[in-house]
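User: These chains co-purify. Model them together.
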Amino acid sequence: MTHDHSVGIVETQTFTFAQETPFVLESGATLGPITLAYQTYGQLNADRSNAVLILHALSGGAHAAGYRSVEDTKPGWWDTAIGPGKAFDTNRFFVICSNIIGSCYGSTGPASVNPATGKPYGLTFPVVTIGDMVRGQERLIDHLGIERLLCVVGGSMGGMQALEWAAHHPERIRAAIPLATTARSNAMQIALSEVGRQAIYADPAWGGGDYYASDRRPDAGLAVARMIAHITYLSEEAMHRKFGRRLQDREQFGYQFRTEFEVESYLRHQGLSFTQRFDANSYLFITKAMDYFDLSQSPAGSNGPVNSLAAAFARSQHVKFLVVSFTSDWLYPSHQSKEIVSALTAAGADVSYLDIESSAGHDAFLVEVDTMTRLLGSFMDRLAREEGI
Amino acid sequence: MTHDHSVGIVETQTFTFAQETPFVLESGATLGPITLAYQTYGQLNADRSNAVLILHALSGGAHAAGYRSVEDTKPGWWDTAIGPGKAFDTNRFFVICSNIIGSCYGSTGPASVNPATGKPYGLTFPVVTIGDMVRGQERLIDHLGIERLLCVVGGSMGGMQALEWAAHHPERIRAAIPLATTARSNAMQIALSEVGRQAIYADPAWGGGDYYASDRRPDAGLAVARMIAHITYLSEEAMHRKFGRRLQDREQFGYQFRTEFEVESYLRHQGLSFTQRFDANSYLFITKAMDYFDLSQSPAGSNGPVNSLAAAFARSQHVKFLVVSFTSDWLYPSHQSKEIVSALTAAGADVSYLDIESSAGHDAFLVEVDTMTRLLGSFMDRLAREEGI
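Assistant: Joint model of the two components:
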């Protein structure tokens, strides 16, 4: 822990619900009890109007800012944006980062023990949706005594959750910031998810998801899934700039099948280190939730299909939006954000939109720190002033 | 066999060389004997000036046109371009399609028996380069008694070979048509290759490449590699148009881990059918050759580095080029073709270049049949007239 403007040492808390009455999922299946891991930074003000909910992406968790201990050198995943004087200024806002149902980071997911059997759920864990994740977070917000969030914000899958909040729980939020995301996963996104899942299925150690009691885990398959995903997070230009055709620890080609190019070494490292921190079954469940995400279709609890994205935001007129995409993001290309903006505009919502010129690819929402700090900071500042915070 | 303008029933021939003196590869390793599978269509004219060499892509083979039998319903991989009256008009040209060293389609590759051991090479097969492949083809051309090819043409890896011919064997060709390709694989292309290889390595049935005597083959890993590759051959728009979010044989989400979206079904089919026709070790060797490809670096047999692409084409001034890229090809993006065009222009070569507006992605060079027929046909027609054919 070395940085200024840090929230300091943080602790992960948990909240458990659906202990008596199980939680009904969009699929119709039930789940309970459900624990959500979360962290908070800053103080909730007297009228409970300054709460900001941070929504993480596929492989993220509740630890968004600060350090786990004084020895810890690696801050939370969005520490650049959360802290005293930062975009999500913890001197001003009460910032919450909630983990999701299905995760392996302290929340109830496929690696959790099913109380009905005394064994890990594995693939008997019910398939959850982005809508289910958000309804879980709503319970957490209830528990924290917050009627209305000042803002929900997230990139990638976190952006899907922000849009889900806006479409289906608009009365609970004042503003939403979906970054580098989509209102509906497209064929390419589903295809990329599916190949990652196939890599896990192909690993014999996966064993149909029932590997928790085994001494082998589907690390090889999960590493391949992560390597595929990692390529999609970068742009061609970013990879070229970062690695080019440079060789790793050698002067000339070895004409052998081992790591030769730096980019190969980087990918292998990304794949390997991911297996040390993530659960393969969680990867399956969370990617599945993203594939299902399509706000233009029937929302949970509705009586029929809403076949238009504008209709999905019919109740969102009073939500302020900041939509952001990045020119080199080919995983969630700008046109998907523009579709969101069109739908929101048609629905009569107050929308700011920026397509940020960046060569960093999908990762830009995390790595374009200066631009994001300015942009998010000024949006939050204006919002706070409007709300008298 | 049902189509007009077909070359009809074709037979694959083989040519074997390096029986006495082994062939020296760019790596310094030697290989021999080497067999190449090839097919020919049309007739070589009296002055042997009408030969066109077709160069296939990663998963292709010598069977480029016509049918294998009267019952055969699936013609060769570029039947749309090769035949009487087609772009490569077999009434006028002698068309050759040569397989490559390292392939599993009738040529010497890792699945071939090493005469020194009596067992399949597996991973003891030497790593070959695009340069090695082309020097192998040069032996075939010698064998066929052709001094100078009228044209070499290929897409993707076939385009790399066309460029290799132009850079290092310019005296043997009159013209070259590199389609949807690059003069040097970039970090993203290497990364995508490497993830495919990792998927194969991760399959326990791969067994370090020594699986030919086993009853299990690394089909699961190879299928994942193919699925990844297949996504890169299509554009986001093409996938959206082809599949959208349509479900496969169902009306609503199943909330289960099986094929639900059409795009998933398509990918699984592509992966599975590939394992029935391709050898995993060949996949490793051929992708490795593509990764090494960089014409801006030292060519085989040179005494030092040629650190500029223009310098690589210093002897290619008398070659006529038609370079083609496709606007939605993100695997071999247009800027890589533009780099080739700049280098050729700087080297003083005669270059035509077209960046074709297409939403078909990398596959466009095969699927944009009408455009390609007109474009290739008129280039070949002009070339033939200039050469008095």
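Chain A is about 35% helix and 15% strand.
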